[in-house]
Amino acid sequence: MKAFYRSIGMPASIPELIGRKATEAELSELALKCSRGGSSVKPLTQADVLKVYAMANSAD
């Protein structure tokens, strides 16, 4: 997936998107905002979303 994103000029990680690693506070805020309301196939908790952001915060 990362290779595809990069092939179309799309960032494949948070550092590629914002030019640096996000802080724990920023990841926590993003996770909180994304875990309120809405619907999905599998409801995600704030902890679930934080794990996703932490993985996306890796530059590799």
Describe this entry's structure for a reader.
With 60 residues, this protein is an all-alpha fold. The protein is globular. The chain is 55% helix and 0% strand. It has one domain. The model has no long low-confidence stretch (mean pLDDT 85).
Derived structural class: mainly alpha
- The fraction of residues assigned to DSSP E strands is under 5%
Shape: globular
User: Span from first to last CA?
Assistant: 13 Å
Query: What is the overall number of helices?
Result: 4
State the low-pLDDT regions, or none. Answer: none
Tell me the total number of β-strands. 0
Order of helices and strands: HHHH
Give the arrangement of secondary structure elements.
Elements: H1 2-7, H2 14-18, H3 24-34, H4 46-56
Helix pairs in contact: 3-4
Summarize the structure.
The protein is mostly helical and 60 residues long.
Give me some keywords for this one.
55% helix, mainly alpha, single chain, globular, 60 residues
